[in-house]
Amino acid sequence: MAKDPRRRAAKQKRRAARKDKAAKRGAGRPVPSGYHADHALDPEAWVAMPPEERLSRVEHYHRRLPATHQPPDLRRHAALHVLVEDQLAAADPPEVWLALARLVDDGMTRHEALHAVGFVATQVMRRAAENQSPPDFEGYARTLGELNRAAYDALVQRSLA
Questions:
Q1: Any idea what DSSP says for residue 73?
Q2: What is the CA radius of gyration of the chain?
Q3: Peptide bond into 5 cis (omega under 30)
């Protein structure tokens, strides 16, 4: 049985319209690919990328998520992802890898675990800004060394109180 050419043309037209809409969302910027928050990165390839490209890839990844998963400030959110991914790529501090593995073992997705590590990093930066002092890198490493899902949940609850 032959396919109806009118149905095929309508389907092609709908597909072209979706591609047009997606291209307009990109607003003339190149569409980077190759980042997925739930997939481990090649550390050497990540570090070899210019920082702006890393940021662009993370932003692009998040733009493809459903609207309910969109962060309020995409640029800041992507920068936090880049910060954590950079630490993972450099294994500095070394506790970052262990924390990520523990969080994933506790049932978090890699993406959620990145957020947990990023949350700890933002707490350290916030305290440094409030105290007008350098960040406590030793405290950061210590917290990462103890970070699991229960500890993360407790940190979040304390921050909301």
A1: S
A2: 20
A3: no
The residues spanned by each domain of the chain are 5-160
Gap between the Cα atoms of 80 and 89, Å rounded: 14
- CA dist 9 and 4 (Å) reads 9
Residue 77 tokens, joined: 């959110």
Indicate the pTM of the whole model. 0.77
Q: What is the secondary structure of 39-71 as a DSSP string?
A: S---HHHHHHS-HHHHHHHHHHHHHTS-GGG--
User: pLDDT per residue over 62-115, tens digit each?
Assistant: 999 998 888 999 999 999 999 999 999 999 999 999 999 999 999 999 999 999
Q: Where are the alpha helices (DSSP H) in 27-148?
A: 43-48, 51-63, 74-90, 95-105, 110-131, 137-146
The Cα diameter of the chain in Å comes to: 75
Q: Do 110 and 99 contact (CB within 8 A), yes or no?
A: no
Cα dihedral sign for 125, 130, 133, 136?
Answer: negative
